[in-house]
Amino acid sequence: MRNHLKKAGLALAVGTAMGLSTGASAAVEVYNQDGTSFSVDGYFNAFYVNRDDKINDVRNSDVKMGFLPNTIGFNFSREVGDLTLGGRSSFWSTINDSLQSPTDTAIDVRQLYATVDGSFGQILIGKDFGLYARSNIFLDEILMGFGSPGAPTGVSFGNIRAGYPYPNPSAQITYRSPDLGGLKVAAGILEPANTTPGAQSEQSAPRFEAEITYGADLGGVSLTGWLNGRYQSSENATTSIDSTGLGYGVRAAMAGLSLTASGFTSKGDVPVLITDQALASEEDADGYLVQGGYTLGANRFVISYGETDSDQGDFQTENSSVALFHDINEYFKVVAEYNMFEQTTKSTDAKTVDADTLALGAIVTF
């Protein structure tokens, strides 16, 4: 039976962080009979976080979740003739609001989609992560770690705004090709952002996103490369904003050692996430992320450095992390990470964030 379930977004994200193997986060199969299956997967984590805020001269201790929220997902698959129909719904929740909203934990649905698989490839309809910057984040070595500071009651930001933007979940219709000798192509239309609110505001075409990935094994070296992009336009009676983005990267792995380099360049957006937000002009942004990782037995050592320079957002950032991931067993992992993050306002050269963070966490998956 074609196992569509392992194509789920969370399984991909967790799998890549655990060594590029979706099998590391296999869902619990609840039902599998007569060509129909149903499964559930989960990801739970908590970190002790000690942060030295050098701008405000304060040090705080917290218990938070990491870069990936706590998540539970439901997957189904059904064979109908030559087609396989599938779907996923995942619920992502924070534990960081336990004192601000004691009994009202925020829950958001980042994936709610159906798929149709056949010899032609796959068509996805619904809500899922975008294609632009998708591999940049899913192949981040500290995906299961903590990373840079984020919203007070939300997730930390990992390397978002310090190496890559967020491929925020969007309503979409996306096509994915079959595996063509290691080459895979995805392209889709997504809900466009209103970046020109006001009189006669319109987005006459959808947002277009695409990604090309290629994987090969050359003499024992596993290579993965990717190129992704985005284009959309928004206009009102006085302003027109074209938003474009190009992401890219390559990863090489051999005998426990991996080296990853990725980057992006964009115009007409703030390189954090794309939303309905008024922009007065089309300004540039770019960034990059370089990482190294080494696996020794049950231990994974990671070093990471990233930067983003944004005229549109009027900021410059740099983010450095060192981390140790230790597998207690296949489903239980502990993490120790030290992160150093700085952000400067470009127009004034004033430093707005200078924070060093120690994060000690535990992760359970099923």
Automatic annotation (TrEMBL):
InterPro entries: Gram-neg_bact_OMP (IPR050298), Gram_neg_porin_domain (IPR033900), Porin_dom_sf (IPR023614). One of its GO terms (cellular component) is cell outer membrane. It comes from the Bacteria. It is a multi-pass membrane protein. One of its GO terms (molecular function) is porin activity. Keywords: Membrane, Signal. Its main location: membrane. Residues 16-344 form the Porin domain. Residues 1-26 form the signal peptide. It is found in: Cell outer membrane. PANTHER family: OUTER MEMBRANE PORIN F-RELATED, PROTEIN YDDL-RELATED. This is Porin domain-containing protein. It comes from Marinobacter santoriniensis NKSG1.
